[in-house]
């Protein structure tokens, strides 16, 4: 007899790319999960003892780290930002690929590496502070939850740290990428304690590992 499992899936842009991987990993949400008009947050699945929650990307990590859900899918940006010790991220799913970068207005001078302090608008204050600290600069982070790209134009901060994929959002807002801080992709995450206690979880991790493995 094993405990039932809760799988946390992010609502946003990873969702569409994640659906084929979920199926290949053997997770089959019930039909109402695909009803775009549904306001439900918890869904059954066709798998025995497995239900699904659909939450914001940043909250997937929080639910799984605290054991409220046992397994989930989330970007490595979120994993790195929280750095929860209870999270184990055993499989790179190869989706949601982008990078976390430092960007500035395209006519702005380079960052003054001899400066002791800089103001940065970002959704990623922890990663940003660490990256600047390793260069001897104290970053004062102004936390935004989206639309970071307008912060320099409105003098909220001279630079931003945000996700970049095609680069189009930066260009359309008069910014340019100056430094890549880290590459990002979506990962399967599990709660470490649950992984040890419930044998269904390592089996599920293995199924996802096989689902994304590149054939030799
Ligand atoms: N431009 C992008 N290209 C590829 N992957 C991205 C891109 N932007 C975000 N991601 C990935 O998708 C995840 C979710 O991003 P998304 O934009 O859907 O959520 P959000 O709007 O940041 O969060 P919220 O749910 O709080 O509105 C990010 O954490 C990142 O891993
Ligand atoms: O380089 P690009 O291909 O233009 O992608 C980058 C944009 O994608 C993400 O935003 P998203 O579209 O998820 O909206 P958000 O600002 O609401 O998070 C990110 O925050 C950038 O704004």
Structural description of this entry:
By secondary structure, this protein is of the alpha/beta class. It has two domains: 5-96 and 185-212, D-Maltodextrin-Binding Protein, domain 2, CATH 3.40.190; 98-183, 3-Layer(aba) Sandwich (D-Maltodextrin-Binding Protein, domain 2), CATH 3.40.190. Helix content is 28%, strand content 31%. It contains seven helices and eleven strands. The chain has helices at 14-24, 57-65, 76-82, 125-133, 168-172, 192-197, 200-212, and strands at residues 5-10, 42-43, 50-55, 71-75, 87-92, 98-105, 117-122, 138-143, 159-164, 175-184, 186-191. The strands form two sheets. It has a six-stranded mixed β-sheet with strand order 2-3-1-4-11-5, sandwiched between helices. Strands 8-7-9-6-10 form a five-stranded mixed β-sheet. It is elongated. 36% of the residues are buried. Residues 10-14, 56-58, 75, 77-78, 96-98, 146, 163, 165, 184, 186 line the site of adenosine-5'-triphosphate (ATP). It comes from Sphingomonas lacunae. This is ATP phosphoribosyltransferase. InterPro entries: ATP_PRibTrfase_cat (IPR013820), ATP_PRibTrfase_CS (IPR018198), ATP_PRibTrfase_HisG (IPR001348), ATP_PRibTrfase_HisG_short (IPR024893).
